[in-house]
Task: inverse folding
């Protein structure tokens, strides 16, 4: 196998900012990515929380180029590249590999429901064969509440056997610890990493040999999540986990993506961040105020968040 | 409103043939479309049964050009153009309108689940505004078993109020007659057509003022389905419906798309037709034989189906 340094620790499915015409805003995205990197959080751009499937393949290719052109390190990137069609997935994955991305996070094709593992195996195998690059590292993306199509343990086993090294890990966003634990016990190795899909399972995952986590709320709480990942053997680890859970719980009371964007808009004094592409809808004013009160009540801060003037953090009253 | 003759009667979500490299096979597609048109069945290319979401936007644009270049009438086409991203949907819809297609069949964005009608309304409104063409005719595509995201009666009402004429109809693939009847009673008009998503409800729909149907099995049984649509007031209409149901029942015992392709491959003596893009998988040999026995048992034929030699119909033993 070609040597590729595995990407580990905490990653964020980076939220995608849009301008007033609902075009992706590369400058705000770059600034947010820099802030995440400064907090030791890697860039799982084009994840579910990035509204990746609300972007065309051409838009995602362009944004990836923008990030690389801005000097952000591809070694810290794991872009989502799984689309419903093999041709789209191959195009985006090939582009990510050529840019030197550490890996790609790949959804199963998610339009047809009730498809069999044989069909999913053929899908991933076809993508791997067509990309045809030994630098390819695929992290399978299991998120049944949204994709509805599952990445089963049997499918992982079969793909790992056929493509060891290239099948480099899995993100488990099932929210089911028993499933994450089974993945850890069966597959975690030097060349296969299991990432829980939420920091809720960060400590438990690390204690079972896991690689870190890929979590929506790493968009807003990156520093503390990354600190637990790097100090999980310290005596205060359980307290750290409890503090992370408290922040997560506040966000989880709302639709996640609009809530993340509302917080970034508020703490960065940059209302443009609230914009979402349909079918997602921003939080209403009352919800927004309630969210901010909930965050203030637990002393939440977003230290160093780039604000509307470029680089200062400010926290304004609503 | 710009004058566009509404497309009515029976349409088929035309199955997409693939070559040995899983590239779409334009020549076989054109031949199949000609056979459907000769049987008075319109072309809902890029539907669910067309594996539309297994094709990139560029592939669909190219195939639409191929059909038009072959002289097939756009006035008999209702291509599927609804993608997860607004940008993709706008690109494909704009292309269809420019070619003069009678309308487009539009899925809601189907990645995010549990989205609200406000978000779906904004999605369709944004597509309509961006396409910005008075010739646009959108047929909303309600297929909750697959898309999981619903087109509610309230959403139809709101869109119809905002965009009368442009919102031109709905395909109801819920399989729930009560829902289809509610759509017919509330919305069927001279400028809004309700198409049941299966010929199972063809006669019932027509008796309630419906426009016809858009059905997977019109790929294999076009003549008899179209005959009922044009003679539904005749005395043998219920007998015709029963005969259609018998054919449908045989196919419905299998995964529909591979079963349709297996039948076309068999009756046209053209095994290439069996190919599917992953994650779909062709029927196994035993299933295939069982399907053909089931069809022979009810005297099923595919008269005039273009075979592997171009234009003759032949029915070989397996």
Result:
């Amino acid at each position: 196998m070609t040597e590729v340094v595995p990407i580990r620790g905490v990653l964020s499915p980076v939220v995608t900012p849009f301008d007033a015409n609902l075009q992706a805003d590369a400058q705000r995205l770059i600034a947010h990515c820099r802030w995440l990197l400064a907090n030791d959080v890697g860039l799982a751009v084009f994840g579910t929380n990035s509204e990746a499937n609300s972007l065309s393949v051409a838009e995602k290719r362009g944004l990836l180029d923008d990030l690389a052109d801005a000097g952000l390190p591809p070694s810290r990137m794991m872009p989502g590249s799984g689309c419903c069609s093999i041709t789209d997935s191959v195009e985006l994955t090939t582009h990510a590999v050529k840019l030197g991305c550490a890996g790609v996070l790949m959804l199963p094709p998610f339009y047809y429901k009730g498809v069999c593992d044989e069909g999913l195996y053929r899908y991933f195998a076809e993508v791997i064969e067509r990309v045809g690059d030994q630098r390819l590292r695929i992290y399978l993306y299991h998120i049944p509440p949204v994709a509805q199509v599952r990445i089963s343990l049997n499918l992982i086993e079969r793909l790992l056997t056929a493509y060891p090294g290239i099948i480099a890990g899995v993100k488990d966003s099932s929210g089911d610890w028993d499933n994450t634990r089974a993945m850890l016990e069966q597959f975690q190795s030097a060349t296969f990493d299991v990432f829980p899909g939420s920091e809720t399972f960060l400590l438990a995952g690390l204690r079972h040999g896991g690689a870190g986590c890929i979590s929506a709320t790493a968009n807003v709480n990156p520093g503390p999540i990354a600190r637990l990942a790097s100090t999980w053997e310290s005596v205060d680890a359980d307290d750290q986990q409890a503090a992370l859970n408290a922040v997560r719980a506040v966000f989880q009371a709302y639709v996640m993506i609009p809530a993340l964007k509302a917080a970034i808009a508020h703490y960065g004094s940059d209302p443009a961040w609230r914009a979402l592409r349909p079918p997602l809808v921003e939080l209403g004013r009352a919800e927004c105020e309630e969210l901010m009160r909930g965050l203030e009540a637990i002393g939440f801060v977003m230290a160093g968040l780039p604000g509307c003037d470029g680089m200062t953090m400010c926290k304004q009253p609503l």
